[in-house]
């Protein structure tokens, strides 16, 4: 196992605090061969997380739900790489043993079971479906965290989860629900409502009793009867819906909305404003080599036409509102959330561009580092449009 050479020594020298101390104790007292094998397992997991080992372990210790999700996504990645079953089992067993030691030392109070084969098979199927879609961002263990960052940023900026004047919705649909965070919060706010989240992948394991998840592909039509929902909500799908499909998609959202019900769309521009040269370079590569081949909007077309799509679909009382969200620590909590989001996007897109031999790994890492600095220097922003309208009664 070449990747294991020297691994035990590198991890054993980690800082004597938190995850670093945990890893050092985990490897201590073992034979050199075993320590190298365990160190290689931890380093392999860290590479899949795009993080140094200590940061990857710190994220694994956050909470049981996050740990279980990360273990499942890692199991899927090991399967995708074609590793032998014994190797896959050993690497997951290493992480489980590390969590067991963390529990013994009082760092965590919970335990998680390794993912079952059926769960891995289902997750593999979902991954294939996602990769065959037009979604811009590659599947990644940290994608759920990134989507939650976007949600928290917008929730902080708006002070609420939707702007449409719906006071007591009975049935709500969230299209492209992602982690389900928006729908779950709407359930908390309106406990009498039934909230349905639709996405290509499975929904959250834990959710309020009023929340339901439905797997489906919006581009293949919504699997609901017409005239069903009081509020239909969709956001951040400019990175998943080809530009030419937007009128048809919005018409489908309107179809499942009851007369008198509301449709709300939330979409940003496909690029930041006030970018520095590194950010422009990085995002230009993404637009030209990733977004454009998928048929996605590479400019501001969806952002500019958002309210127009609603009117074209026959809605009335259409309202448009624009926000300019900060990206960077200079912008307070919202800016900090979106800076973390942007760093994750640039890191993953850099990996994608590197895998296609479009830029070397060193340039990809340098563009991400310089872009992060430019967010502060140029006061980078992200324009966002919100449009909502009512279906005639």
Written overview of the protein:
There is one protein chain. With 393 residues, the protein is α/β, with parallel strands linked by helices. The chain folds into two domains: 131 residues; 248 residues, 3-Layer(aba) Sandwich (Rossmann fold). It contains 14 helices and seven strands. The chain has a seven-stranded mixed beta sheet, sandwiched between helices. Strand 4, helix 10 and strand 5 form a beta-alpha-beta unit. The longest helix has 24 residues. The N and C termini lie far apart (67 Å). 42% of the residues are buried. The N terminus is likely disordered.
Supply the number of structural domains: 2
Classified in CATH, the superfamily of the largest domain is Vaccinia Virus protein VP39
Q: Which of globular, elongated, flat, extended, rod-shaped describes the shape?
A: globular
**Tally of DSSP β-strands:** 7
Strand content: 5-15%
Report the radius of gyration as a whole number of Å.
22 Å
Distance between the termini: 67 Å
Structural class: alpha/beta
Helix run count: 14
Biggest pleated sheet: 7 strands, mixed
CATH topology of the largest domain: Rossmann fold
**Reading side by side through the largest sheet, how are the strands ordered?**
3-2-1-4-5-7-6
- Percent of residues in helical segments? 40-55%
Q: Name the average pLDDT.
A: 89
Low-pLDDT regions? 1-16
The CATH architecture of the largest domain would be 3-Layer(aba) Sandwich
Q: What is the string of SSEs from the N terminus onward? A: HHHHHHHHEHEEEHEHHEHHE
Q: According to CATH, what is the class of the largest domain?
A: Alpha Beta
């Amino acid at each position: 196992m070449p990747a294991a050479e020297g691994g035990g020594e590198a991890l054993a020298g980690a800082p004597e605090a938190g995850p670093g101390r945990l890893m050092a104790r985990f490897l201590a007292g073992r034979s050199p061969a075993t320590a190298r094998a365990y160190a290689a397992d931890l380093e392999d997991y860290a590479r899949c997380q795009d993080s140094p080992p200590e940061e990857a372990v710190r994220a694994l210790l956050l909470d049981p739900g996050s740990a279980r999700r990360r273990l499942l996504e890692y199991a899927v990645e090991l399967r995708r790489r074609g590793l032998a079953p014994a190797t896959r089992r050993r690497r997951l067993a290493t992480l489980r043993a590390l969590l067991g030691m963390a529990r013994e030392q009082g760092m965590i109070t919970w335990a998680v079971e390794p993912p079952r084969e059926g769960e891995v098979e289902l997750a593999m199927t979902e991954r294939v479906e996602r990769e065959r879609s037009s979604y811009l961002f590659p599947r990644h263990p940290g994608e759920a965290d990134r989507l939650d960052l976007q949600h928290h940023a917008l929730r902080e900026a708006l002070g609420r989860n939707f702007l449409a004047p719906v006071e007591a919705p009975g049935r709500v649909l969230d299209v492209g629900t992602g982690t389900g965070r928006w729908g779950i919060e709407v359930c908390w706010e309106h406990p009498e409502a039934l909230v349905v989240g639709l996405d290509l992948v499975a929904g959250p394991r834990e959710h309020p009793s009023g929340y339901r998840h439905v797997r489906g592909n919006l581009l293949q039509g919504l699997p609901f009867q017409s005239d069903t929902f009081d509020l239909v909500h969709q956001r951040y799908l400019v990175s998943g819906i080809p530009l030419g499909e937007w009128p048809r998609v919005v018409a489908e959202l309107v179809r499942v909305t009851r007369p008198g019900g509301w449709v709300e769309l939330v979409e940003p521009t496909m690029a930041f404003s006030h970018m520095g040269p590194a950010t422009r370079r990085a995002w230009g590569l993404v637009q030209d080599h990733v977004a454009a081949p998928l048929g996605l909007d590479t400019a501001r077309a969806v952002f500019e036409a958002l309210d127009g799509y609603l009117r074209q679909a026959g809605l009335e009382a259409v309202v448009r509102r624009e926000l300019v969200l900060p990206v960077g620590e200079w912008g307070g909590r919202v800016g900090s959330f979106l800076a973390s989001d942007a760093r994750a996007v640039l890191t993953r897109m850099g990996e994608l561009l590197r895998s296609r031999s479009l830029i070397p790994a060193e340039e990809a890492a340098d563009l991400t580092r310089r872009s992060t600095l430019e967010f502060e220097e140029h006061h980078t922003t992200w324009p966002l449009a919100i449009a909502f309208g009512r279906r005639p009664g």
